[in-house]
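Cast an eye over this sequence plus tokens and explain the fold to me:
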Amino acid sequence: MNVSMNSRIRKSLIASLSKEVTGNEEFEAMNNALRLLAKWKSVFLQEALIKDGGTVVRSGPFKGMDFLANSAEGCHIAKLIGCYEQPLQAFIEEAISSSYSHILNIGCAEGYYAVGMARRMPGTQVLAFDLNTKAQEVCTELGHKNGVSERIKVGALFKPEDFEGYTAARVLVMCDIEGAEKELLNPVIAPALKGMDLIVESHECLVPGITQNLIDRFKGTHHITIVQDDGQRQLQKMPNWFNNIPNLDQLLAVWEWRSGPTPWLVMKCKGA
């Protein structure tokens, strides 16, 4: 782990544990400290995995993608292993086998899905959007690294009215924007959404009630599947060092750093 990250984590951990608190505040402080330690150990495991086999994704829909040493945000090692968001993978494979002309990946981060889908779907144009300028840069670089840059266009803000530009296309919307899906995905103000398929991460832990809100908006026009995540992962063949580490470390390696429930909504247009 690099020195600056090591130092930041140490300082945050000391600050979290040094507060004089009681009751609910004490529980919250302990919870924050535990999450911080877990993330810290997860990064150590990530570096061990990279040292063992580099940055190529080991399994899952994007097996063989030459990924990165670090993610733009959130967990990383689960992406390298290939078990990231595993409950969703059957739906990702279904999308890959569909003849979408365009994918709108809104909240693309470093490009795990944007580049992964572009590699698997040579006839599809991927448009990736993220407000984080560093994420935009890394996503662009990842596309070049994997030889698909000519089919990935990276942008910043995507607004509800922008959906109208794709009414003539067969579109899959992949959306992960930390609760802002409530403002963006509204077919009343963006009627083009009624004819598009969507895979949406619903940030229930950040915006309580948002899952039902989105279901109510789209139930008239889409077949909707709610995909929950119990945190369990099935791993394919792993290196010997991984099989011999403590069970807690194995759990941390597949933990995705979520702070609470984030179900997915897979919404298939009824008119398709």
Notes: The mean pLDDT is 90. Residues 103 and 126 are 5 Å apart (CA to CA). Residues 3-53 form one domain.
